[in-house]
Amino acid sequence: MSLEDVLENVNYNIEKIVVELRKRIEGIPGITETVDKSKIIYQYSGKNFCLINIKKDYLEIDFKIGNDLVDPVAFSWKIGRTKRSEFDNRMHMKNIFDIDVVFNIISQSYNYTAKNRDKSSSNQKYRKKY
Fold first, then answer.
1. Which listed residue, of 2, 43, 85, 99, carries a Cα 20 to 30 Å from 22's Cα?
2. What is the 3-class SS of the chain, one letter each residue?
């Protein structure tokens, strides 16, 4: 099922949110987007940092952040990692007016993933060297 097919089955507000959120996320350097049924997965350098589950009348967004999250309005909450999921936080989005808060949190997740990815790459280089 393509993303267009999924968006045909959601309310118009959710469709608008998905389109706008994708536009903003596409502006992040070095990311890849994978659409899988009713999910959009975002990766940086092969590491997932955000998963958007498209529901009929809201978005369920899972992301990685560790303890670095700055969320002054408490928009998201912690979730437990499982064998099937590496994400540690979740938020729901129903309203286009929340897009700035949601995109800010997704950007933090990207930065967290990029920082940890770059750190592990430099550690591997060091280990290989010596």
1. 85
2. CCHHHHHHCCCHHHHHHHHHHHHHHHCCCCEEEEEECCEEEEEECCEEEEEEEECCCCEEEEECCCCCCCCCCCCCEECCCCCCCCCCEEEEECCHHHHHHHHHHHHHHHHHHHHHHHHHHHHHHHHHHC
